[in-house]
Design a protein that fits this description.
It is found in: Nucleus. By secondary structure, this protein is α/β, with parallel strands linked by helices. It contains 13 helices and seven strands. Helices cover 41% and strands 15% of the residues.
Length: 350
Amino acid sequence: MDLFSDESDNEMYEIGVFDSGGIVDTENRRLYNRINYRSEFSNSEFKYRFRLNKTSVDELLLKITPSLKVISSRNKGISPLHQLLLTLRFYALGTMLLSVADFIGVSKASASRIVHHVSRAIADLYPQYVKILSNTQNAFREIAGFPRILGAIDCTHVPIQSPDSNIGEEFRNRKGIFSMNVQGVCNADLLFMNVVARWPGSAHDATIFNNSTPTMQCEEGLFGNRWLIGDSAYPCTSYLLTPLLNPTSVAENRYNEAHIKTRNTIERCFGVWKRRFPILSLKIRVAMQTTQAIIIATSVLHNTCRLNNIRDVDPEVAMPQESGDITYAEGIGQKNHSVRQQLINNYFSV
């Protein structure tokens, strides 16, 4: 099978509806026209609809094809290319599965299976694309003069449908919306370096951080004397710097101003990520395992787009804005405020 075939002939096939006796109901037979969108659209039209350009899709397809299930061509099997394009279209629209199923030319049940399998296959590429980088401090320092920054950290809520009646309330956040609370760490170029997508919406940002891999790595000293930078939802520690809630001196105000400008990178990163893949801002209506795979998969695709200089695109759907309300955790880790004060005295008092 040619994964990247540019053949102009589109596949046309029928799906019959079977009754309980296994007889085809010819009156309800549907005719699908499976279009080769790779050859149908120009580069700009293709990127607008699928968020990646054709070259990036080809490269991604080579990596995930071994993980995809393909039915024999005798039964009009869905090619790896069509499976990937259906999934990308679902990410780009955040709409009902039936809409993207009709767009590609498959049934709704097939679309559901495809989104699950392709999302898992892309999410498996996470270690290749989302990882802690070593050369981050210089780019961060150019933003506002903040020294030795490893990355900016924050959490964002991804709306979902209620998982089930037994655990659903765990996913209801403080605004009364069912969501996943997703942690992200990025560098100054808006590349994700860590994404955690396994906590319900009711979980506090500090709880997620304290149980995440970056915390363990920082406590083991794997990043030397570099810091993470986060908002006041996090405790101030020897490796995570938060803003002062009540600055009193000129140096402390300078610190807060530099902190805000530097920390803004993670908020921008979330904004670009959600704007490129609106499914993250709209309610995801799939199973929990698929939801988690979608969040990780889109973080991989976000980094792919940043690394390949694929420009951001305007969303095809209006997205709700997330409020910046913060639940403060300033009282935690008081003994480590001396690290922050020393930084203020050394770098911001001049």
